[in-house]
Amino acid sequence: MFETFSHRFKSWLWFQKSAQTRYYIHSPYVFAFYCKVLDEPFNAACLAIEDLWLQTKANDTPVQIEDFGAKKGNYTSSLSYLAKNVAIQPKYGKVLHHFLKFNEATYVLELGTSLGFGTAYMATAKPGIELTSIDASASVQNYAKTFHQSLGLKNINYINATFDDTLPKLLNDYPRLDVVYIDGNHTYEATLRYFHMLLPKCTANTVLIFDDIYWSKGMTDAWAAIKQNENVRLTIDVFQLGFVFFRTERLAKEDFILRY
Question: I want to staple 46 with a disulfide (CB 3.0 to 4.6 A). Which of 42, 75, 170, 196 is the partner?
């Protein structure tokens, strides 16, 4: 536990030293990303999701979790703990929401539903989004469904299964991948495995978003390996989230670290 905390703290210090503001960005696309994604304010949809998140933070209802990720095993937690420590925080949920508007995504895949707050931020980004969310824990995903119903969301397809069991067939059936949000099984091996499973389906317009890239040394090492992949042309790091682009029109490979 101390090693993980130490890694996150050192990573945060490094990020603060390395991150750029909009005034030092020379790429027109990344500058537009900064203005239209990071700088965009909370809108009504985001505020409604944040309000639900605040209510959940105060809810101590116990939840049985089937974990096939980094922890592995069954254990009991609470809605309040999951909202505080596992679910995406509103600051970064807003980033997901505005990025899907900015990117004009339609087909969206989420690996790791959890309580479904990230799902909600993406599903409400714009009309026409078709979102599929996968999670191995049925009990937690059921809470997500309830939350989504309370928000009036009807554009989400839920799959209760492990990523390894589901992804091969699901990817064959997908017409294309616009955005994939990877937020589950935070280990080095699993993160790279999912990246390479997704890679054959990725086009010049596909964007992969990795959550918790500084959660552990293993996650940070996986992020570094993904950045080095020859198919990746651009990455954007906003500390919790790492964006991966395959934009073939970019002649030079670039990595940006943006203050947020």
Answer: 42
Q: What is the CATH number of the domain that holds 243?
A: 3.40.50.150
DSSP codes joined into one string, 110-143? EE--TTSHHHHHHHTSSTT-EEEEEES-HHHHHH
Length of the chain: 260
The pair of structure tokens assigned to 114 is 């959890």
Instruction: Check residue 66 and give its pLDDT.
Output: 76
The pLDDT assigned to 114 comes to 95
- The single-letter code of the amino acid at 194 is Y
Q: Name residue, tokens 């935070």.
A: 186
Containing domain of residue 120, as a range? 2-257
Domain count for the chain, please give it: 1
Q: Indicate the helix (H) or strand (E) that contains 180.
A: strand 179-182
The residue ranges of the chain whose pLDDT is under 70 are 68-73
- The tens digit of pLDDT for each residue in 37-48 reads 999 999 999 999
H helix runs in the chain, sequence order? 2-18, 28-33, 44-57, 79-85, 90-103, 117-123, 138-150, 163-173, 188-198, 217-228
